[in-house]
Amino acid sequence: MKSGFTNLGEIGEWGSGGTPLSSNPSFYNGSIPWLTIEDLNDGIVTRSNKSITELGLKFSSAKTVEPNTLLIAMYGSIGKLGISGIKCATNQAIAYCKVNTEIADLWFVFFYLLYSRTKLLREGRGNTQQNISQTFLKDFPIFLPPITEQKRIAAILQKADRIRQLRRYARQLSDGYLQSVFLEMFGDPANNNETKFSDVVEIDRKQANEQDRSSLPYIGLEDIESNQGILTRDYSLIPREMLATNYIFSANHVLYGKLRPYLNKVFMPTFDGTCSTEILPLLPKEKLIQKSYLASYLMNDRFVEWASRNVEGANLPRLSPERLAEHKIPIPPKETQERFDIIFQKQKNLQRKMSEAERQAEQLFHSLLHQAFEEDYKL
Predict the structure, then answer these.
(1) Rounded average pLDDT over 250-270
(2) How open is the CA angle 342-345-347, to the nearest 5 degrees?
(3) pLDDT tens-digit series, residues 16-49
(4) Looking at residue 242, what is its pLDDT?
(5) What is the mean pLDDT of residues 165-177?
(6) What is the mean pLDDT of residues 70-78?
(7) Based on the number of CB atoms within 10 Å of its own CB, is 179 exposed (0-12), middle (13-18) or buried (19 or more)?
C-alpha cells in the first residue's frame, strides 16, 4: 500500500467484545482475563480486574484478542486506549484492531489515536452516555507515511512517552513517602495525647472583601489534587473568581476541602489568596501544633475515614466546621513535630522539582505529538 490518506478500517481487522450473562455465576471468575474500559491505561495492558470462563466466552459475544492488539473505548471514556500485552477478551464497550503490520505500525496508530482523542470525543453521540461506533472508527481518516517513517516517528514518541511515565511514577512514589514517615514517627495517632481540634487550630472563615477577590488568586476545590497535597495547576494561572462569598487565606494556613472528605483534598499554600467556601482555611496555633503535622494528619487514612463517617448530607456530603472543631486530634511532643517538619520541608522541595520535571516531560511529549500529526510529520 502506498503512503497517503486512508481510513482506520483499511489498516487491520476490527471487532468488539461482549458481556456474558451476569446472572450466571459459571460464566465469571475463570481463567480468561476480561477487559472493561477501566482496564485501559493508555499503554500496554497486562492485567484485568475481571475474568470469565470458557463457558462465558462460548455463550456470549465476547471474543479473545491476541497480544499486540489495539484497544479503544467506544462508550463513556471515549478514546481511552490500550495495547493488549496478554491474550484476553473484552466487553462490548471496547473495539479492537489487529493491525496489518505490512500497512501500518501498531504504535504509530496508537499515538495517532491518542492525538485524535479530542476529535473522537467531539463526535460522541448519546443522550445519557456519549459513544462512538465501530463503523465510525473504521471510517475515521488517517494519513500513513511509508512504514519506515511510521516506525521512526513511533520510536521517538515511545521514548518521550517512557520519560513522562517514569517522571509520573517517580513523583507518585515521592508522594507516598511523607505519609510513611508520618506513620513511622508518630505511630498510631491514638497513642498520643488528644485534645479538641479547636483548642489547637483556628477554623478561620474570614470572608474576602471586594478588593481581595479582585486582586488575589482564587483556589477552588477542583484546583486541589486528591491525595497529593498539591494544586492541579500553577496557582498564578488560576483565574480570579468574583464570587459573592470567598474565604481569604495566607501562607500560614492549611486549606482543607470539607466537601466529600473522602477525596482527601488538603493543601499548604505558600502565598496569600482566596478560596471557595467548600474549603476551610485552618490556622494552626504555632506553639501547639506545626503546620506540616496538621496537613499530614488531615491526609492520614485514619482521619479521612473519620471525616467520611461524620459528614452531613446525602448528595453533597460535607464535614461541618462545628463537627471538625469537636474532633479529638492527637498532639505529639513539640520536638517530634519539629523533626518531622525538617523532613517535610526537604521532601516538599524535592516534590516541587519532581513535579516540574513531570510537567516538562508532559509538555515535550505533547509537543512531539503535535509535530507528528498536525504539522505534516515534521519529526
Answers:
(1) 96
(2) 105
(3) 999 999 999 999 999 999 999 999 999 999 999 9
(4) 63
(5) 82
(6) 92
(7) middle
What is the pTM for the complete model shown?
0.71
CA distance 101 to 71: 16
- In a domain, residue 337? The reply is no
> Quick one: three-class SS letters along 76-104?
CCCCCEEEECCCEEECCCEEEEEECCCCC
CA angle 100, 377, 153 (to 5 degrees): 55
Give the distance, in angstroms, between the CA of residue 128 and the centroid of all CA atoms in the same chain: 23
Q: What Å distances lie between residue 336 and 184, 186, 292, 333, CA to CA?
A: 11, 8, 12, 5
Q: CA torsion sign, 103 to 108 to 114 to 115?
A: negative
User: In which element (H, E) is residue 369 found?
Assistant: helix 334-373
User: For residue 1, is pLDDT > 70?
Assistant: no
Set of cell numbers at residue 349: 522541595
For cell 476551610, name the residue: 280
- CA gap 332, 117 in Å, rounded: 50
Cell 477525596 sits on residue: 263
Give 217's DSSP letter.
Answer: -
Structural domain count of the chain: 2
* Host domain of residue 266: 193-331
The average pLDDT across 67-76 equals: 94
**Domain annotation covers residue 173:** no
